[in-house]
Task: structure prediction
Amino acid sequence: MATITTDMIKQLREATNAGILDCRKALEQAEGDFKKAVDILREKGLASAAKRADRKASEGVIELYSHGNGRVGVMVEVNCETDFVGKSEKFRHFAHELALQIAASAPLYIREEDIPQEVLDHEAQIAAAKAREEGKPEHIIPRIVEGALNKFKDEVVLLRQRYIRDESMTVQDLLNDVRVALGENIVIRRFVRWALGETTEEA
Result:
């Protein structure tokens, strides 16, 4: 059993805002591994965040962001439950981070379920044709197609994208953390991203 020091608990508490006892338990469970302890706390936090997911979110902000001397523009609507949270620095910061993410990573959809079936079918056909062209055995093609579809979703779905400031987490992880920290249901309602010389992508 790893020795859990006061400094370790303090460090974990500062990183997660969790209670001292929760931090100690998480560190004990993770046998002193800081990253594992953060994940354990996040998983526990997600349970309380999930309970909030059905609550109505109609307050919030429409964040506007212009990048590259006006070459890329983003507008994103993020909702919360109360005007108080909507005006908070943490909520506004989250909305701004989303706008930066959208500008940098150009997602096409917010959630996986937003992708039209015909788009997924088209991607699957391309992946299968490419695998056959490369001479892959027929029995492994479904697995190759599945991998290609997952990669496609990771690229075009905002919540599945790697967070630009921390590659160890996804935008979904970031959203979950903000829900837990603010104690409200936070919803990414819609976004649009314009780039000079490109067709408009909207979600």
User: Anything to note?
Assistant: The chain has eight helices and six strands. The radius of gyration is 20 Å. Strands lie at 59-67, 72-80, 162-163, 166-170, 187-195, 201-202.
